[in-house]
Write a structure and sequence with these properties.
The complex is a heterodimer.
Chain A lengths: L1 H21 L7 H21 L10 H18 L3 H23 L4 H12 L1 H8 L1 H4 L13 E3 L2 E3 L5 H24 L1 H11 L1 H6 L4 H27 L9 H14 L6 H19 L3 H15 L3 H11 L1
Antiparallel strand pairs in A: 1-2
Chain B lengths: L1 H32 L6 H42 L9 H23 L10 H4 L11 H23 L1 H11 L1 H6 L4 H27 L5 H16 L4 H21 L6 H13 L13
Helix pairs in contact in B: 1-5, 1-8, 1-9, 1-10, 2-3, 2-8, 2-9, 5-6, 5-8, 6-8, 9-10, 9-11, 10-11
Classes of the chains: A mainly alpha, B mainly alpha.
């Protein structure tokens, strides 16, 4: 078992570290590789809440999209600096998560899901309507990600796609390490206890609402971080990065990969992103195929890829 | 100014009636089966397009009568084949399933009827303004309000005066006991789902006459319906009705003073309601999980 795990982790890191070098050879492109890890990070952020705290949140596009808009607007209107853009985006998304979470921590189950869905959409309408600032339906253009100046050296992430990939990967590694450590900490164990049996956790004197709030904010923070890179990737953002369909895509990524496993959502994101890319470039009716994919996953594959593998190995 | 304000209040009332009609169907399904039906907007679009297809042969009134029924039949089939398997499982799965269905239904409408929006003809008797001062009071708009009122009245009659309604209401409170008392819960949920989808189809036909037809017609109406349910109170159908009308009028009035906040205002309302009454205006404390 332990050796299996070692092999499988080694393989994962090998793929992540070398992706830009063989992506083109297998018919992909560097941008697709970035998209996989960006959406993978968003799905893992969501899963921090969904899979490890056991709270059904369905509106994560809001924090993701706010990260994207925060980054875009920071460069366009304030300061042409990539680190500054990331900072602004992350603050915007995290603040929104903190405020919304405070309103809903007392709700549970379907009701919680419903309120997160509805709240997930408020920023979409704002971005859609507030033409003069957000560019409305056409999105926010006329800005570009800026080269990084590290002391005397310059990392040209603006022109060099590979350099940008490794910057995103570096942030991805930091974020994933932080989430992994958090889950191993007493806080993370408490969240898992709440997932397993909320009532018992409450009897043990754990302030459940407070913990769900913290988990929600952490999750929103990493979703917003992913969102900033999503905007920086294409030097563009539009209201679709805030739309509930994207929230649903995050959830299916987490479920597809395996909600109960740490790396599952990344696997799910990789499958989903590649599928969507392939289908939408080959047929106009890609929505039907993606929709059918949802139905099939839920009906036949509810434990996800990693859950399925774990079961096979166990039996 | 008064005229403009009145116009927008009236407009908001109509839009609110749509939201309410849609939200009532969503609520029915949610209360009895615990399924958040994302595909509700898709069913609405299908209802509208079916009416569009039937109109040349059946006329306006025939289409209005038949299309929602056909939509409900489609709903019955979908519940039976797909959604039924997911009862009793984590609500996440039914959510994702109906989410996928929403994609499929919208795309099906686009595939069959085209992506361009098409006009939905209504009888000329209904389009003439009834008063020159209040130009917005066309027959069709009044007719819509009346029809929604009749549909809602009929729904509450069914729920409060028939055996089926009694069972649905009892099932909402305690499905297990209802089952033990000899009611076929599978059939009950199926019929209840069909009833909810019927309301979606009806809302679709009415909306088509006012907004015109396009594949995304349902997608744009579904979020406000969620807000209506939350504002009104989960588990309470009168609450859902109230919530729908309230957010409709609120966004109508906001259009006059601050057009870019037309949609945002209902979310502000939702935030305020949640702050003061976490279970919604007419939701009962501690009833819903």
């Amino acid at each position: 078992m332990a050796r299996d795990k070692l092999v499988w982790h080694g393989l994962l890191w090998l793929v992540l570290l070398t992706m830009p070098y063989w992506m083109n050879a297998v018919g992909g492109y560097t941008e697709l590789a970035v998209r996989v890890i960006v959406l993978g990070l968003a799905a893992m952020a969501l899963n921090f809440l969904l899979g490890f705290t056991g709270v059904l949140s369905f509106g994560h596009a809001a924090y993701f999209g706010l990260g994207a808009y925060g980054a875009a607007m920071a460069i366009k209107f304030a300061l042409p600096s990539t680190p500054f853009a990331i900072l602004v985006g992350v603050i915007a998304g995290t603040l929104a998560a903190a405020v919304i979470a405070a309103l809903i921590v007392k709700l549970r189950g379907v009701y919680f899901a419903m309120v997160t869905i509805a709240f997930g959409q408020v920023f979409y309408f704002i971005a859609f309507r507030w033409n003069s600032v957000t560019g409305g339906d056409d999105g926010l253009t006329g800005w570009r990600r800026q080269p990084l100046h590290l002391g005397s050296a310059t990392l040209d992430i603006a022109a060099n796609d590979k350099a940008f990939y490794y910057l995103v990967l570096a942030f991805f590694i930091l974020a994933v390490a932080a989430m992994g450590l958090l889950l191993r900490s007493p806080l993370g164990r408490t969240l898992i206890a709440i997932r397993e049996n909320e009532r018992r956790a409450r009897f043990l004197g754990i302030p459940v609402e407070q913990h769900i709030w913290i988990a929600f904010v952490i999750s929103g923070f990493f979703a917003a971080l992913a969102g900033t890179f999503y905007a920086l990737l294409s030097n563009f953002t539009d209201p679709r990065s805030l739309h509930w369909t994207l929230s649903g895509n995050f959830v299916i990524m987490a479920v597809l990969g395996g909600m109960r496993s740490f790396w599952g959502p990344l696997i799910g994101a990789a499958i989903f992103v590649v599928l969507q890319d392939y289908v939408s470039s080959h047929t106009e009716n890609w929505m039907s195929i993606i929709g059918l994919f949802f139905v099939l996953v839920v009906t036949f594959f509810p434990r996800g890829v990693l859950g399925f593998i774990k079961r096979r190995v166990a039996s | 100014m008064t005229q403009l304000l009145l116009f927008n209040i009236f407009n908001g009332l109509i839009v609110g009636a749509f939201y309410a009609l849609m939200a009532l169907g969503l609520s029915l399904i949610l209360n009895l089966s615990g399924v958040i039906n994302f595909a509700h907007g898709g069913f609405l679009a299908i209802g509208a397009y079916l009416a569009y297809t039937l109109m040349p042969t059946l006329g306006f009134w025939g289409a209005l009568l038949i299309a929602p029924f056909l939509t409900a039949v489609l709903g019955l089939i979908v519940e039976r084949v797909l959604i039924r398997r997911l009862y009793g499982r984590d609500p996440l799965y039914s959510l994702l399933l109906t989410f996928g269905l929403a994609y499929i239904l919208e795309d099906a409408a686009r595939y069959i009827w085209g992506a361009q929006s098409v006009p939905y003809p209504i009888p000329s008797a209904l389009t003439t303004p009834l008063s020159t001062d209040y130009f917005f009071l066309t027959g069709y708009r009044l007719f819509m309000v009346a029809l929604v009122a009749i549909a809602v009245g009929a729904l509450f009659l069914i729920l409060n005066r028939t055996r089926l309604g009694l069972r649905i209401r009892a099932g909402t409170l305690d499905l297990e006991t209802v089952s033990v008392l000899g009611v076929n819960v599978g059939v009950l949920r199926n019929v209840n789902f069909g009833l909810g989808i019927y309301l979606a189809g009806l809302a679709g036909v009415l909306a088509a006459g006012m907004l015109g037809l396009q594949p995304t017609i349902g997608t744009s109406l579904i979020m406000p319906s969620f807000v209506a349910i939350i504002v009104g109170g989960l588990g309470s159908l009168p609450g859902t009705l109230l919530g729908g009308l309230l957010i409709g009028v609120a966004s109508g009035v906001t259009t006059v003073f601050f057009p870019s906040a037309t949609e945002a205002v209902m979310y502000v309302m939702m935030g305020l309601v949640l702050l003061v009454r976490p279970r919604g205006l007419l939701g009962e404390e501690g009833r819903t999980q």
